[in-house]
């Protein structure tokens, strides 16, 4: 095929990967007036972005991540004016609960520490919590309440950002797997499976669990592996459980969480994760994990025991060795940016990541601290990185 | 109340009594819960989203539209549960979490 | 000891498969969701009912009785688990639940004989109390000695439409009408295939003749417009006749079905390959002529894979068992396999004849008004699915499901999935196979959260 037969498309920025991060970045790049091409292998928001729990939670996060989370939370509240729909965001409040005293002490300490980072939590005893939220189980004895956190629908969020980006003038290309990315003296050149070639002086890798492979193309390997969350949903019942309830237990099997959607279903997840396959793009839902979740869910919300599970699912998430994402500029290639590997906690951050990355790409600067998420943070221990494989 | 189903045979079976939404009704031994309810009335439940009555659809355990509740809150799939004397059933979800 | 063979389903296919395994000296586990063996067509009535088989099964009484008595004879030689739902597949084995007790059944091979349900085309008003699937109306009569109404209309297409209407007539309930969406001209197209089983064809003709003689209006080439009714039941069905005139038939129940839909979820959980079967215009697991699925040690038989009816299911069940025995190098006569294949070839031609005589009216899905409920569980309308197709740009059914919820409810798309796919395909202007099929997820049916797990 000669070059004339191809269809080169040029923009200021190419975003590779149309998950929540990529779709939101594309949208906010347009608000900065940059032209953008978003290349998505399948459909916008189909992998981790569409299959996660839907937590819009700040409490419990790594403290230096809170500025980003606050920025995101602010955007969550303004979605209808920004993208034309609320994607079922419900600022219903969020409870982190525990039955263990050591975990309770950890929650207490966090509530003190996060104040300096601008997050106000209310600590409650089990009885205080039950007075306010009578659905909470009798075993729960320490509760951390974050009144302005909540939840939203992950199946809707990234696709809504993708459509908004398109309306705002982004060139959103779905079903376009990127086969190669190279850089010449001025441009990144991305070639997709249909033979098309896209060019831009700046490029963002936001391909989730598949981000590692792409960063490695530019000599920046990160210790990262895919895993699958174990999700499920009950039949609907009248809406009664407003806050998200999550266990803060340090015991893996106890670490479940749940939320009731306005339509009535209770979405749940947590506990062990499964293996995921980057080649088949599938993460396994082990039904034995669903069985393990059931009694733990009933400790948080005893009334859930009378319901039925109607569906379960998983999705491919990228977990980095230190449980923090890769976010910020490349340290080797100018014009290259990363936003991937959000370790199962990226959903709340999505809008904030989009706004922050767009700002960084458009202006070269952001006030949001990104130092802890530098791609180069594993360089000193490269051998370790290569050998990394997480346990479930 | 209109009964949806009508018996065409096998009416010589022993009667059983049950309570549905607080009213005593009679059915026959060997009936499913669905048969017992629909020979006495015209609904099993209400759809969660439009509040309209539903009375089952497939009768073979596929459509999941015939779930009813016992007064204590247990759910039963009416098409595949045999009726028992003294059953106490309701056609709407038993509320919990009353403050 | 090696893990056992599991047979899922105790209808015609499952029963014959289990029987053949027992004949070879195996002791299969037979898991069946029904409390009583027999499947749907040969569904048994409760113990304390007294109608003879002739009354229940008509011309098929002898076959029904044989299937039941042969199974009773198998009982000491199998591990029979009635009233047990298969809901998942784990590394450890097949996951079942009975009452609230979950069990894990390891297996070395599995024969899936999960049967079929009615294939449903929504019609405005079909969520009213008093509207039932055709199969449901037959089950009410057969297993419970009840009619779904005093003056029911049988609407849809397929041989079962006339059989059930005739069974109602015999039970003393005169149908208000039989409304077939296919024309007589269409039916003749399948005649050659149907001639391969003249006896069965003759029964069908007889049912129609007796319905006509009893004064039951039979209309062909109709298009349903809507079902009318109140909170407590159906009052009428409005339909367009072959000449396009709108007509109303008063009735107190509607039984509707458009042929069958294979129950294929378990094969999907077992990661078997699927193919789009043009004859039956639906996706199904890929099998070789003897019932081997794409995955080793998985076999399928009966209407759960190929919609050829109960007689064929018995043959296919036996053949799948033979295939399993052959794969284990256990003695099976090549004559036996050849004979069974021969019988099935005839059944195949007949099934193709039926399929072309009573085709699924895909075009009706495209014509459904936007406010028609398609997904009964989630109350998703045809308009919602079209919105997913166009404004939300969903190229395939799972995307449409993710964005607007068809098939998201308790039944996982069993009732609406095929029609939803047609609506999506029509709105996108693509062939239906291109929009795919709804992916299966565990639990196959709702699983109580208070279940107990026995190791």
From TrEMBL, chain A:
Domain of life: Bacteria
Keyword Oxidoreductase recorded: yes
Full protein name: FAD dependent oxidoreductase
GO MF term list: oxidoreductase activity
Keyword Oxidoreductase attached: yes
InterPro entries the record matches: FAD-dep_OxRdtase, FAD/NAD-bd_sf
Pfam families in UniProt: DAO
Record's GO cellular component terms: cytoplasm
Residue ranges occupied by any FAD dependent oxidoreductase domain in the UniProt entry: 12-360
This protein's UniProt keywords: Oxidoreductase
From TrEMBL, chain C:
InterPro entries noted in UniProt: BFD-like_2Fe2S-bd_dom (IPR007419), BFD-like_2Fe2S-bd_dom_sf (IPR041854), FAD/NAD-bd_sf (IPR036188), FAD/NAD-binding_dom (IPR023753), Metab_Enz_Cyan_OpOx_G3PDH (IPR051691), Opine_Oxase_asu/HCN_bsu (IPR017224)
Domain BFD-like [2Fe-2S]-binding, chain residue ranges per copy: 373-425
Domain of life: Bacteria
Keywords: Oxidoreductase
Stretches assigned to the FAD/NAD(P)-binding domain: 5-307
GO molecular function annotations of the record: oxidoreductase activity
Coiled coil, from the record: none
Name this polypeptide is given: Oxidoreductase
The species this protein was found in: Acidomonas methanolica NBRC 104435
């Amino acid at each position: 095929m000669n070059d004339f037969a191809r269809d080169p498309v040029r923009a200021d920025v190419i975003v590779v990967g149309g998950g929540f991060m990529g779709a939101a970045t594309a949208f906010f790049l347009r608000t900065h007036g940059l032209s953008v091409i978003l290349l998505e292998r399948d459909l916008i928001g189909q992998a981790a972005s569409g299959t996660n729990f839907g937590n819009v939670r700040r409490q419990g996060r790594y403290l230096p991540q809170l500025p980003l989370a606050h920025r995101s939370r602010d955007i969550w509240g303004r979605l209808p004016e920004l993208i034309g729909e609320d994607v079922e965001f419900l600022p219903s409040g969020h409870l982190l609960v525990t039955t263990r005293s050591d975990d309770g002490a950890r929650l207490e300490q966090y509530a003190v520490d996060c104040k300096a980072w601008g997050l106000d939590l209310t600590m409650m005893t089990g009885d205080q919590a039950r007075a306010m939220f009578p659905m909470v189980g009798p075993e729960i004895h320490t509760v951390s309440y974050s009144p302005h956190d909540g939840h939203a629908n992950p199946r809707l969020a990234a696709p809504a950002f993708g459509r908004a980006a398109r309306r705002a003038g982004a060139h959103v290309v779905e079903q376009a797997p990127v086969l190669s990315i190279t850089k010449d003296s001025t441009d990144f050149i991305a070639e997709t499976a249909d033979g098309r070639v896209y060019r831009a002086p700046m490029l963002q890798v936001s391909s989730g669990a598949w981000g590692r492979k792409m960063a490695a193309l530019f000599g920046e390997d990160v210790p990262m592996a895919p895993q699958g969350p174990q999700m499920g949903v009950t039949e609907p019942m009248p809406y009664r459980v407003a806050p998200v309830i999550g266990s803060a237990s340090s015991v893996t099997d106890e670490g479940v969480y749940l939320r009731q959607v306005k339509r009535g279903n209770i979405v749940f997840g947590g506990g062990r994760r499964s293996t995921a396959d980057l080649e088949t793009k599938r993460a396994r839902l082990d039904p034995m994990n669903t069985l393990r979740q059931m009694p733990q869910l009933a400790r948080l919300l005893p009334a859930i025991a009378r319901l039925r599970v109607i569906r379960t699912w998983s999705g491919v998430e990228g977990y980095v060795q230190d449980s923090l994402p890769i976010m910020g500029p490349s340290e080797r290639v100018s014009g290259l940016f990363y936003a991937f590997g959000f370790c199962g906690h990226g959903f709340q951050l999505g809008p904030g990541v989009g706004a922050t990355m767009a700002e960084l790409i458009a202006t070269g600067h952001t006030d949001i601290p990104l130092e802890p998420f530098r791609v180069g943070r594993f360089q000193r221990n490269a051998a370790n990185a290569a050998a990394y494989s997480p346990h479930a | 109340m209109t009964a949806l189903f009508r018996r065409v045979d096998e009416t010589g079976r022993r009667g059983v009594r049950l309570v549905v939404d607080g009213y005593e009704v009679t059915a026959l031994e060997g009936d499913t819960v669905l048969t017992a309810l629909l020979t006495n009335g015209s609904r099993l439940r209400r759809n969660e989203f439009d509040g309209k009555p539903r009375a089952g659809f497939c009768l073979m355990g596929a459509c999941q539209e015939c779930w009813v509740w016992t007064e204590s809150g247990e759910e039963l799939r009416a098409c595949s549960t045999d009726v028992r004397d003294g059953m106490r059933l309701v056609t709407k979800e038993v509320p919990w979490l009353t403050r | 000891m090696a893990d056992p063979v599991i047979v899922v389903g105790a209808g015609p296919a499952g029963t014959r498969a289990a029987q053949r395994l027992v004949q070879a000296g195996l002791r299969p586990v037979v898991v069946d969701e029904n409390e009583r063996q027999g499947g749907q067509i040969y569904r048994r009535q409760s113990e304390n009912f007294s109608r003879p088989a002739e009354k229940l099964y008509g011309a098929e009484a002898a076959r029904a009785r044989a299937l039941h008595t042969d199974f009773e004879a198998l009982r000491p030689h199998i591990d029979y688990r009635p009233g047990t739902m298969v809901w998942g597949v784990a590394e450890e084995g097949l996951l079942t639940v009975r009452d609230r007790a979950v069990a894990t059944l390891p297996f070395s091979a599995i024969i899936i004989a999960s049967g079929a349900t009615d294939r449903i085309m929504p019609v405005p008003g079909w969520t009213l109390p008093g509207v039932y699937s055709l199969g449901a109306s037959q089950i009410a009569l057969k297993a419970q000695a009840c009619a779904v109404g005093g003056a029911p209309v049988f609407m849809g297409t397929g041989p079962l439409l006339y059989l059930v209407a005739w069974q109602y007539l015999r039970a003393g309930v005169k149908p208000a009408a039989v409304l077939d969406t296919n024309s007589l001209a269409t039916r003749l197209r399948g005649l050659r295939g149907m001639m391969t089983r003249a006896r069965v064809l003759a029964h069908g003709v007889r049912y129609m003749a007796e319905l006509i003689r009893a004064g039951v209006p039979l209309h062909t080439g109709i298009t349903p417009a809507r079902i009318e009714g109140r909170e407590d039941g159906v009052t009428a069905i409005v339909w367009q006749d072959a000449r396009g005139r709108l007509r109303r038939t008063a009735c107190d129940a509607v039984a509707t079905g458009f042929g069958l839909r294979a129950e294929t979820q378990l094969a999907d959980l077992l990661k078997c390959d699927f193919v789009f079967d043009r004859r039956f215009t639906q996706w199904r697991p890929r099998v070789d002529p003897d019932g081997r699925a794409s995955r080793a040690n998985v076999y399928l038989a009966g209407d759960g894979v190929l919609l050829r009816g109960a007689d064929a299911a018995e043959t296919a069940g036996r053949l799948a068992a033979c295939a399993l025995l052959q794969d284990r190098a256990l003695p099976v006569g090549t004559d036996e396999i050849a004979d069974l294949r021969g019988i099935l070839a005839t059944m195949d031609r007949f099934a193709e004849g039926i399929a072309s005589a009573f085709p699924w009216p895909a075009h009706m899905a495209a014509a459904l008004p936007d406010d028609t409920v398609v997904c009964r569980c989630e109350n998703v309308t045809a308009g919602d699915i079209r919105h997913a197709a166009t404004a939300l740009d969903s190229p395939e059914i799972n995307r449409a499901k993710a964005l607007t919820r068809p098939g998201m409810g308790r039944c996982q798309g069993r009732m609406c999935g095929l029609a939803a796919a047609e609506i999506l395909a029509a709105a996108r202007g693509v062939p239906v196979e291109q929009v795919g099929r709804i992916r299966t997820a565990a639990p196959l049916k709702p699983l109580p959260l208070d279940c107990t797990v026995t190791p």
